[in-house]
Amino acid sequence: CTYYENIGFAKQDELVELWIKNWEQHGFEPIVLGKEHAEQHPYYEEFCTSIKTLHQQIMGHSIQEYGMSCWVRWLAYAGLSDNTPFYASDYDIFNNGFSIENIPEEQLHFMDYACPCFTSGTSEQFEKLCRVFVDISTQNLQQLQGSVDCIWYHDQELLLHNISDIKEVDFIKMTSEPNVGLYNHKSKKIFEVTHFAHQSIIQARNDFPYLERYDESKLRIKFIKQALGL
Questions:
Q1: For residue 12, how many other CB atoms are within 10 A of its CB?
Q2: 8 band by pLDDT with thresholds 50, 70 and 90
């Protein structure tokens, strides 16, 4: 599964289509979930209210649309009716050899440690995760205020700034899998699961000034197609 919400980012439709095609080629059934799936969950209103309040309290300003989409995706995963374990990824996560024969962990698994880009779990575990997000942020509210080294408090900032508490949750597992890696245009190494993240494109443009003339969203599509032969 992946989560897609149209919040005005360029080339996202094309990126999602590439994601679908790529995972299908490796035997998976790609499912694209959206905000409407999260809205059907009975915890939706309470969860969104809690996240907006916590962000205001921690950061001193309101959370933006992109930030809310980072949180809401977990509730969309929680809304799947079948409680069978499944993989969930950002749609800039591409498969280059990750086998359909791999069996998801019994625990909810963050497969790139504190980066929430590639996980596995059941719908029930993803709902529990949403509640853990709220509980841990509330519990650590005072120490989080003024200490988050970013301009927002999204799911990745939660993982980074509350890592010891997250690790103590019995149904969560966090590992740095050797087959999950961030795309680097210098080495062009492709992992079994490669993350063509926003930061990868920024770094490529910094490393290779001639790339600055290219539109960032188009450049990411270009890198993906070149790397995976799509």
A1: 16
A2: confident
Token pair of 119 as six digits = 């996980």
Query: CA torsion angle for 84, 133, 175, 28 (degrees, to 10)?
Result: 30
| pTM of the complete model | 0.94
pLDDT digits over 181-217, tens only?
Answer: 999 999 988 899 999 999 999 999 999 999 988 888 9
User: Can you tell me the distance from the alpha carbon of 114 to that of 59, in angstroms, rounded to the nearest whole number?
Assistant: 20
- Report residue 44 as tokens: 């939706």
